[in-house]
């Protein structure tokens, strides 16, 4: 089955760090660029970061640039998001998403919840 | 503030036709970049509805269609059904941002 499965979410205190993982299965992970997208409670979708197939091209949203780091390991069919200096505004469901050859997201994970609170 | 603007909510009765607008600018929709639409039911992950402005992935009913004119795009749903009640997001690329893309703020569709 073609799927993405996020993990690593949880409750952390402000200022702490957290690493999210996304396990890909059922398709050739190394052939696809990937995104991280988040959704705060009751809010809309917010694109966070993009990584190309060979990691040569990486983009970040202004809201997370300098605090979040995207990476991938094609040998492990996995995508990562290292998040540091977390604030309560980072509380959200975090989705990993596959980018098609046409540039649109054609596959989403189920999401992992990150809660930042003291 | 999202660069792509959508109304917070729209509603319609079963069987009706509704449209959801997505207003952009000359640096995104108006520049000719593709518009995508995603559907999200409560408590679930988003799902691709329309790509390439007016193409439907396999499995998406032909009741759903997309269009674009100038700096705006629209999602149309014909023959509204109860299961269409969901949040809808437009998405495109903006050449002023060093980014993969941008999402609209989202529109909640209520089927009366």
**Order of helices and strands of chain B, N to C?**
EEEEEEEEE
Q: pLDDT average of chain A, as an integer?
A: 97
For the largest interface, the chains and their residue counts are: A-B, 22 and 25 residues
Number of strands of chain A: 11
Q: Which value, in Å, is the CA radius of gyration of chain A? A: 13 Å
The total of helices of chain B stands at 0
Helix/sheet category of chain A: mainly beta
Q: How does the overall form of chain B come out from the CA principal axes?
A: globular
Residue stretches of chain A low in confidence (pLDDT < 50, at least 5 long) are: none
Instruction: Report strand % of chain B.
Output: 35-45%
Structural write-up:
The complex is a heterodimer of chains A (118) and B (112). Chain A is mostly beta strands and 118 residues long. Chain A is 0% helix and 53% strand. In chain A, strand 5 (45-51) and strand 6 form a beta hairpin. By secondary structure, chain B is an all-beta fold. Helices cover 0% and strands 40% of the residues of chain B. Chain B contains no helices and nine strands. Chain B has strands spanning 9-12, 18-23, 36-40, 47-50, 64-69, 72-77, 86-92, 102-103, 107-111. In chain B, the strands form two sheets. In chain B, strands 1, 3, 4, 7, 8 and 9 form a six-stranded mixed beta sheet that branches. In chain B, strands 2-6-5 form a three-stranded antiparallel beta sheet, with no helix packed on it. Chain B starts with 8 loop residues before the first strand and ends with a strand. The mean pLDDT of chain B is 95. At the A-B interface, strand 5 and strand 10 of A face strand 3, strand 7 and strand 8 of B.
